[in-house]
TrEMBL record:
Residues 81-139 form a coiled coil. This is Uncharacterized protein. Keywords: Coiled coil. It comes from Muricomes intestini. The keyword Coiled coil applies. The lineage of its organism: Bacteria, Bacillati, Bacillota, Clostridia, Lachnospirales.
Length: 141
């Protein structure tokens, strides 16, 4: 059997082993904590880089979209201006034709007015000549 001294030695040995085991466990936990913190830091850095890259890509996409939108607006503006110019030319052509027609109508009106005046003068002359002929017929009759 074990005497008291042996038991004390065993206790001290077990205590020493327990303390060593605790220290080893604490070191392992400390190393695990450091490793976890390092991995989290790396993960955070990687995430930050991904967000920065995503922001840059998004900014590029918005810039490209703005550029394309401006180009399309410019193209549309040019098309509208060209169409307006084409329409203006067509309308000016129609307006010139209307002016020509109006000038012809004015000439026709002037001619018609002169013919009417001439006809009225001739009718007056004919009436005057008829009266004179009638007067001469009365004198000779």
């Amino acid at each position: 059997m074990l005497d008291k001294n042996d038991i004390e030695l065993l206790e001290k040995l077990l205590d020493k082993r327990f303390v060593e085991s605790n220290e080893k466990t604490e070191r392992m936990f400390a190393e695990a904590d450091k490793k976890t913190e390092r991995m989290l830091a790396e993960s955070n850095e990687k995430t930050k880089r991904m967000f920065v890259e995503a922001d840059k890509k998004t900014e590029r996409m918005f810039m490209e979209f703005d550029k394309k939108t401006e180009e399309r607006i410019s193209e549309t503006e040019n098309m509208v201006l060209e169409e307006m110019e084409r329409t203006r030319e067509i309308l000016e052509g129609h307006l010139d034709q209307v002016k020509e027609n109006l000038d012809e109508m004015k000439q026709y009106y002037q001619i018609h007015k002169l013919e009417k005046q001439s006809t009225e003068i001739l009718m007056k002359l004919v009436d005057e000549l008829r009266r004179r002929v009638e007067a001469l017929e009365k004198k000779t009759a």
